[in-house]
Each structure stands twice: as structure tokens, then as C-alpha cells.
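Weekly structure sync, notes
Attendees: PL (lead), two postdocs, one rotation student
Agenda item 3: pending single-chain targets
PL asked that the sequence for the first pending target be pasted directly into the notes so everyone works from the same version. It is reproduced below exactly as submitted, 521 residues in total.
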Amino acid sequence: MTVVQRLSGAHGTRDRRIRATGALALSALVLGTATACAGSPANESGNSTDAGTLNLQYSAPPGTLDPWAQGPAMLQQAMYDTLTHVDKSGDAVPWLATSWKFTDAKTLEIRLRTGVKFTDGTVFDAAAVVTNLEYGKKNASNGSKSVLAQVKSVTAVNSSTVRITLASPNPDLPVAFATGSAGYMVSPKSLANPGSLRLASNGTGPYQLDTSRTVAGQKYVLKQNTNYWSPKTYPFSQVTMKIVTDRTAQVNAVRSGSLDVLAISPGTSTSGLTIQKGAAALGQGIALLDVEGKINKALGDVRVRRALNYAIDREALIETVLDGDAEANPSVPANSSSAGWSEKLAGMYTYDPDKARQLLKEAGYGSGFDLKVLSTPAADGLVQAIAGYLRKVGVNVTIEDHTSDLLQQAMSGKWAAGNTNLSVTGRTFTDITLSMTPGAFFNFQHVDDPKITELLAEAGGATGEAARNKIYGELLDYAAGQAWYIIPGLINTRTAYDAKKVRLTNGSTQAVALYNIQPAD
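Predicted structure, written out during the meeting:
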């Protein structure tokens, strides 16, 4: 990623907002998202519901089920409630938090739902929220890290009210509590022993892990929480998630009816599938992680990074590699619906290999340089295509694939570049914060650009939509000019589903969350 009133004017009006999380593509989720839409709780009676089993798949076994770690989103959404949900416009709506308001630009007060308990019987209250946010600020190892880095303090005003004080303004914080794991609530007793969460659950969510039928690394079975406070929001009596690494097998499973929902990636045949199309939300390409030149000196020169962007033919890459279904992007975490977007920004890096060579020459790399890129087999099609263009202007690109240890490799700090899966929400403040600030999880070199920090602070504290959007325009122009990425375009999201069994309630502009999957009419 707004009282229950919206934060009107905070971002301007946009039609397209998709999930926000960080950057490097670790392994593709078959279905696992961080945002979607929701309304008011459908039922608070505590009665269970039964719409049968929802069958999902994940393309790689999770190392942990801990929501404060880098776990699979769909499993987290099943076992752990978030403080907020988001609606079809991408705005925060109540969930565990029933209302909220900014008392000033840096202070958010949240009222909490009462009568909710964790599965171990612990009461969900303000003290539990304080424990979770303080724990996450110190220990999060996922996309919530950059959000919580802005939190100065969290205090319980009373048993049902929390006050969050920020070091700098973040108008998107209520949305972040829905779209990232910063909003997942875990029993404080389990946080005292986080290792217990590796293969167990202890949340307030609609499902609990059925350890007797779960086979770690192969299949995860979730049974209904019969004491859940809003059972009709999650009507399936059971959720089963299998680990299936073969993409063809995943698609065939949807066709056969053994898989209910599947996020479609470029190059996938969709013949015979029911598809819901979304907006430009996923930027695939190469992240230039070492923009300070500590590992690869050449990347420390912005002229070199810009040269790499002029070297690629975005339109050709979109047509040949991205199925012609993407929005051209100037390597910035934003789309054409983002506040601050402009035609000038959209045309910043037109294909110009001669200009690329000239910039390289000016930077002292007229004879080229070596660039080693961390990747994974699923991303190699686009990474190889980009590498082909870079080689034409003298850059000697080598690609090294990793799978099971991809995250460990990325976090090692030894890579100057790596393949990226940059998620874009259409919320300028959130997208820049999650991608280009020192606390951003996938900013593995912890690069700190004072100009970005300054502009974010100005935007967060600005009064009025026009003033804020003007700052966002300056921020996006600057971010694109710094060229931290080589992204030809933002892929339009596509989700396949078994229309005989389920319907998707998120609409075409939001990614699918678990609460958006409902039984077919």
C-alpha cells in the first residue's frame, strides 16, 4: 500500500491500483497476492459456512508460514486477519480496525474490533497490536519492513484504541495495513517464540492449519475456524494448497477443474481458460541493485544506468516477450494511473542505442563493461532478451540462475543486479516507499537517496490534492531519472479461474485476495 472516511485528496483519483510489495522475483506465486477488495463483514454471528474445498497451488514450498517473514500470501490471508482490507478503488476499509483517523500528518489513531480472539484463546486488543507492530519493526523480513521503518512509536490508548506516531508522514498507512504483512495480527504468545510459527498458525483468521493432513513442502490443508467472527466472508469449509512447480501442470489443473484460481504469467497459453484481466501492475526486468557502484563501479554512474535504459526497445520487448499485454514503463515504480504521471515521464527512455553508446562513452565505458545478473529460470526469457540489447551497446552480460537459494543470494549483498518482479499499486507514495527507500526490503544495498526521502516527506505533509500531485510529479521524474531498474513495461495482470466453481469479486482493477474468491452463483 482514510478514516473510514477516505483520505480525500491524498493521492488523486485513480482507476487502477494493484498490490504493493517489493521487487526481486523470488519464485512465482500460483496464487498469492497482497491486495484486493472487500466490503463490510458479511456475518458476525460466528456460524460456520460450507462451500466445499477451495483448491489453490503454490509454485515453490514456503520456508515458513510466519506472516512476519517471507511466506506465501494466500496461506497468510487464510490464517491471519489484517487490520484493514481494501475496496475496488484500492482504498482501505474496516476489518480488525473498525475506524481510523489522522489527528495530524504524523499521528494515526485506530479503533479496534472487540470480541475477537486468537486461536489460542488470547484476546485481540490494543496491546496485541502494539506487540505485533513493535515486533515487526524489529524483526520483519518482508515488504512490511520499509513501512514499519517509518513508525516512531505505537501506544495503547485503551483496550480498543491504538495510537501510531510516525517519523515522517505516510498517508497510505491504512492501505499498507491491508496490502502488506504489516497488518497481519499474530498472537503475542507466538511472537514470544517465533520459531513456533514455521509450520503452525496462531491468528484470528478464518482458517487454521490442519497439521495432521499437512505435508510440509508438498501440501498445506487449512480447516475452518468455527469461532471466526465473519464466516460468510470466507465461505469455503477447507482450503488446500499444493506445491506444483511445473507451469504447464498448473494450467492443465485449471482446465481439468482440480485448481480453482491461477495467476497467469506472460508466455502462458490461456486457450480454454476463463480469464479476468487487470491493469498494469507488474514490472518485470532487471533491478540495478548497486546504484552506488560498490560492487560494479559502472552502475554507480547515473549516465551508465540511463544508457542501459536507452539501449532497450520497450515496444519490441512488450510484443515479443510480454505477449503484447503490457504498458510501456520508464523503469519507475508507477503506472499511467499514478498521481504525478505525465506524458513527459512516459517518453523518458525512447529506444536510442546511439544515445546509449554516447552516455557510456561519456561515463568512461566506451569499450563497455561486465555485468553479472542474478536470475531464476522463470524470469530468464525477459532477462535474456534485455541482455541481448545491452550486449549490442557493449555491455557484457552474464546471467546466473538460482532457484531454492534465490532470496539468500539476493540478500547476500554481493549482487549488483538481479531480475525483478516490481509490484505497482498506482499509489505513488506507497510504490516509491516500497521500492526506493533505505528500509525497502528488496533494496538489498540499503541505498539512501536523500532527494527521494525529502520529496516523500513533502508529499506526505502537503495540504490539498493539487499540491501533493505536483510533488508526486517531481518525485516520479526524479526516480525515473535515477534509473534503478531496467523495466520495459508493466504487465497487465491476468487471473484464470474455474467459473463453474468460483467467482472473483475484486473487479478488474485489483489483484485477488482470498476474500475475493467466492462460490459461483
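Discussion points:
- The first strand starts at residue 53 and ends at 58.
- Confidence is low (pLDDT under 50) at residues 1-40, 42-46.
Action: rotation student to compare against the earlier draft before next sync.
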